[in-house]
Design a protein that fits this description.
CATH class of the largest domain: Mainly Alpha
Number of strands: 0
Number of domains: 2
Number of helices: 7
Largest sheet: none
Oligomer: single chain
Order of helices and strands: HHHHHHH
Radius of gyration: 18 Å
CATH superfamily of the largest domain: Uncharacterised protein YqeY/AIM41, N-terminal domain
Length: 149
């Protein structure tokens, strides 16, 4: 995982020099999450293993934003949103909704799904194809729409 790890270290140094606390702390949290995943799996993560981990970090922050907004803590929600912006920079380019629709329709045709009850048959293979390239929430919405749900 030399490429992404080196990029993170370089960006961390730049953030420290620029006294950018938000960027510095977000990168440190990401490095800690990577390290914890490596300890858990007892092996070094490859560059392909990191995007799903980053997406989990983003999902956690989105959940936090929702809770903070419900609690009237817009200041904390704004901080979480800014952290999402930092994390998204380390993800590969995300597919557009139109591209997701095309991929979802192909999988629907492939598995012969015909209604909302077949959503599980579609989501597994589709998420396998789109891993790291699309937000699962958007994929879920697209599949639901295409299956008439």
């Amino acid at each position: 995982m030399t490429g992404l790890r080196d990029q993170l270290r370089s960006d961390l140094k730049d953030a420290m020099r620029a006294r950018d606390a938000l960027r510095r702390d977000t990168i440190r949290f990401l490095e800690a999450a990577i390290k914890n995943a490596e300890i858990e799996s007892r092996e070094a993560l490859s560059d392909d293993d990191v995007p799903p981990l980053i997406q989990r970090q983003i999902k956690q922050r989105r959940d936090s934003i929702e809770q903070f907004r419900k609690g009237g803590r817009d200041d904390l929600a704004d901080k979480e949103a800014a952290e999402i912006g930092v994390l998204e920079a380390y993800l590969p380019a995300q597919l557009s909704r139109d591209d997701i629709v095309v991929a979802a329709q192909a999988v629907i045709d492939e598995v012969g799904a015909s209604g909302v009850g077949d959503k599980g048959k579609v989501m597994g293979p589709l998420m396998g194809k789109l891993r790291g390239e699309a937000d699962g929430r958007v994929v879920n919405e697209v599949v639901s729409e295409l299956l008439g749900g």
